[in-house]
Amino acid sequence: MRLWCILIFLISFAAVVFGQDYPRIDSTAIHADTVKADTSKKSSESAGIDTVVSYSSADSVVFFYKTKVMSMYRKGDIKYQKMGLQAERIDVDWNTSTMSAFGVPDSSDTSKSKLRGAPVMIDGGEQYQGKKLRYDFKSKKGTITIADTKIDQGYYHGEDIKKMAPDVLFIEDGRYTTCDDPDPHYYFSSPKMKVMPGDKVVAEPIYFYIEDVPVFWLPLGVFPARGGRHSGLLAPAITEDATHGRMLHHLGYYWAISDYMDASVRTDLYTKGSWALYSDFRYALRYYLNGGISGNYIKLLQGEPSDPDRSVSESYYLNLTHSQTIDPTLRLNANFTFASNNAYQNTIDLNQALQQDITSNATLSKVWEGTNNSAGLSVSRRQDLIHGNLYETLPSVQFNHSQSYPFRSDKSTDISDLAWYEMIGVSYSGTATNTRNRINQTVDSIKTTSGGTNATQSVHEYEFDHTQSLGQTISANIAPKLGHFTISPNITYTDNRSFTSNDVPGRNIQDSSLTIRNDRQSTRLGTISSGISASTNLYGMWQPGLLGIAAFRHTLTPSLSFTYSKQILGDNLGPKQMVASLSLHNVFEAKMNQTEKDKEPTKLTLLNFDANVGYDFAADSMNFTPISTSYHTAIGSLLVIGGAASFDPYKLDEPLPGVYNRVNTLQLPRLTNFSVNMSTAISGPQNQTRKKESFGDTLAPHSQTNAYAGYSADEEPDFSIPWKLALSWDYSENRVPGQQFRSSAIDGSLEFNLTENWKISTKSGYDVVNKEFEMPDINISRDLHCWIMNFEWVPTGAYRHYSLEIRLKAPQLKDIKVTKQGSDRGIY
User: Fold this and answer.
1) Residues with Cβ within 8 Å of residue 709, at least 6 apart in sequence
2) More confident residue, 142 or 615
3) 395: preceding bond cis by omega (within 30 degrees)
4) Burial class of residue 119, CB neighbours in 10 A (0-12, 13-18, 19+)
């Protein structure tokens, strides 16, 4: 203790003699095992340190006054700005504002090759390790001897690492890898390496090693030193097509334009002359807008130029998307796709090959705050690629006034205190639509050949349908509470008008010339309808006191309604309709006994069952409508069952063999339609220590869009779930007089870990009625630590194929991979 008091006195005296060349020691901060800098002082003289330096040591801190050198022994620790350093021995020269750190030989190591307390420096989130370290406070430059450094998920090793600037490192005999194994499975090696953290690594020359075996050499290498989006080449894959030859798939360039937009251009090149070009542009700004433009042009050649059956097929595909919140009350959404009719035939993408009907739409919606009014402007387009038909709505305008209460003066009044007339609600909707359809028609004409024989020639023409329609609906209703019943009378008026112009192609019988016949017609339909409905809730309770069940509850909600409608305007006035309907909604629930004092008891929904039937007073016979039912239940999370059924209450007569008629005779309801679905999904407990890794990236800091989607990204297998099984069974039956149609299918998927690093997953289905298996899909994945292997195999079906890929997991190096694909039809 006496020694410490002397040391304190000498340090305080030296601080007075030498002024503020280095931080003064605060005597209150000195303990038996620690010395800390005085945080109340800053160096401002020639030492050039512009902020507080905090330091501590587990053994001792020694100051050499003449040289102004401070030495820390045993577990030295220094903190300066964003830099922190820990080492067994640290020397600080306050004259030059430099520090040196190194470890000491480990006495327990007989080989004397290990060091105890080797320097570890963290600077701005980057970690540096080595045998020796030297750092300059003023220039923020330093050198590390035989060092290991971690920056942006990358590990660097070098005989000497020199930090020349906050964002520049020079590494001698360097090695770079993203594998965190002490003996990495792969690495890039170079005698000269320049690292710009958060940007890129430049090496000259560069060698790529796998398991310490050199694989390839390049005179110069430049690769990213960060995860996320960055511009660069897109590595291609090699695939095989039995018709068009081998293919270099998605060779191209990805351009990260900014944090909010990117673009790519890719190409497919076939050995037999076919080719394809793809392009994508995307943008995103969170809370405001996002969208993009993508498209492709494909040219497929089959046969040699001199072959008589040589074919050339060209196709295009274009997709435009845009979503924007213009202000809190105005929003725009658009998704348009244009494609040639053979686009689904020329593609190599399985999803696009199955997309044979394209739907496009755009909507501009507006709401008025503080009112019940809203409006919308929309356009839509549906393209049938198989038949060449086109259906367009250009445009459709809608205005809606949702239910409001015009006689209610104080909206805050409790509903039970309102007068009956204050409960009257009104609503309105109006639409104006312009539609245009192009229907592919086959027009036959008779031609006389030179030999005097007749031949039929089929010519494809288009029928054009053009329709404008106007519609509006206004309704009023009231729903007062009368005791235990809710009564809801309502009245609605609907007015619809349409104007149609059709251009129908045909053939002139006399000279077989093409003729176009224009048909014009207009219709108006004004209908008034009114009705009343009543509903209530009935409850039943049973408390068995068995098996931990506190009570069973049955809730029955009957609802009776009557509607009357009649067309009052327009031509060909239809008959009036008067229909009464009865519906029953049933909910069966169970409440379990309370197991914990402060926890709510568990409630289980056992069954939901609905049934309804109607009676049409305006019909001259067979007034009852079919009885329809639906049901849904779940046995915990293990099994889900649902379905529906309908019944015909009228007798079926057979006056002639094979001829059936419904007659106006009631009988026990006959089943006409039935469906049931059962599904289950179970899995093993998730391994919390090995949760699924995510290597995706975002287009922008506020976007959830995968920046590599559509380029080279596949969903990673989840090795944390040991096994998972999902099964479903669907059955439906439709009975029409004299016939019965059935369909039944079993679908299932299974995934399991064969070992800790092997995962197998498969999915398929079986058509029970036709006794056919659906296209199976088998996936095998192998976790190779810093690599991942994925093998996909579809062994049967029209789109059977296989795909093998072995690639690095790290997102900045995911294009380093080996791929092999094959397909009879070029579909993957």
Assistant:
1) none
2) 615
3) yes
4) buried
Beta partners for 210? 186, 213
Of how many residues is the chain composed?
828
Which pLDDT score, from 0 to 100, does residue 632 have?
94
pLDDT, mean of residues 50-75? 82
Collapse the DSSP code of 685 into the 3-class scheme (helix H, G, I; strand E, B; otherwise coil) and give the result: coil
Which residues does residue 116 pair with via DSSP β-bridges, in sequence order?
104
Q: E strand or H helix at 538, and its extent?
A: strand 538-542
pTM for the whole structure? 0.66
For 301-323, write each residue's pLDDT tens digit: 887 777 787 888 899 999 999 99
* Mean pLDDT, residues 167-171: 81
Q: Please choose, from the candidates 195, 131, 198, the residue with its C-alpha nearest in 3D space to the C-alpha of residue 163.
A: 195
What pLDDT is stored for residue 49 in this prediction?
57
- In the chain, the amino acid numbered 347 is T
Q: Which tokens in the block code for residue 444?
A: 């036959």
Measured CA to CA in angstroms, residue 521 lies from 462, 554, 571 at distances of 20, 56, 12
Torsion-angle region of 562 (φ positive above 0: left; ψ -120 to 50: alpha; else: beta): beta
Q: Which residues pair with 683 in a beta bridge?
A: 724
Confidence of residue 444 (pLDDT cuts 50, 70, 90): low
Q: Look at residue 413 in the predicted model and tell me its pLDDT.
A: 66
Every domain range in the chain assigned CATH 2.60.450: 2-140
Among 533, 397, 529, which residue's Cα sits nearest to residue 469? 397
CATH topology of domain 2-140: lipopolysaccharide transport protein A fold (2.60.450)
Distance from C-alpha of 820 to C-alpha of 828, rounded to nearest angstrom: 12
210 touches 189 (CB < 8 A): no
C-alpha span between 191 and 102 (Å, rounded): 24
- Cα–Cα distance for residue pair 756/762, rounded to 1 Å: 18
> Max Cα separation, the chain?
133
Give the pLDDT confidence score for residue 46 in this predicted structure. Answer: 38
Q: What is the 3-state secondary structure (H, E, C) of 301-357?
A: EECCCCCCCCEEEEEEEEEEEEEEEEECCEEEEEEEEEECCCHHHHCCCHHHHHCCE
Strand pairing category for 237-241 and 817-823:
parallel
Q: What is the DSSP string of 417-470?
A: G--GGGGEEEEEEEEEEEEEEEEEEEEEEEEE-TTS-EEEEEEEEEEEEEEEEE
Find, among 787, 791, 614, the residue nearest to 695 by Cα: 787
Question: How confident is the model at residue 249, as a pLDDT?
Answer: 82
Q: How far is residue 398's CA from residue 367's CA, in Å, rounded to a whole number? A: 12
Q: Which residues pair with 336 in a beta bridge?
A: 320
Q: What CA–CA distance (Å, rounded) separates 605 from 591?
A: 9
| pLDDT level of residue 211 (50, 70, 90 thresholds) | confident
531 contact partners, CB below 8 Å, separation of at least 6: 489, 490, 491, 561, 562, 563, 564
Which of 149, 196, 191 shows the shortest CA–CA distance to 168?
196
User: Helix, strand or coil for residue 638?
Assistant: coil
Banded pLDDT at 142 (limits 50, 70, 90) = confident
CB 822 within 8 A of CB 749: no
DSSP state of 75: E
Both tokens assigned to 99: 């520090």
- Residue 506 Cα to chain centre, angstroms: 49
Is the model more confident about 367 or about 82? 367
Q: At 7, which helix (H) or strand (E)?
A: helix 2-17
What average pLDDT does the segment 379-407 reach?
A: 89
In Å, how far from its chain's centre is CA 148? 38
Q: Are 718 and 757 spatial neighbours (Cβ–Cβ below 8 Å)?
A: no
Q: Quick: pLDDT tens for 409-419.
A: 776 667 777 88
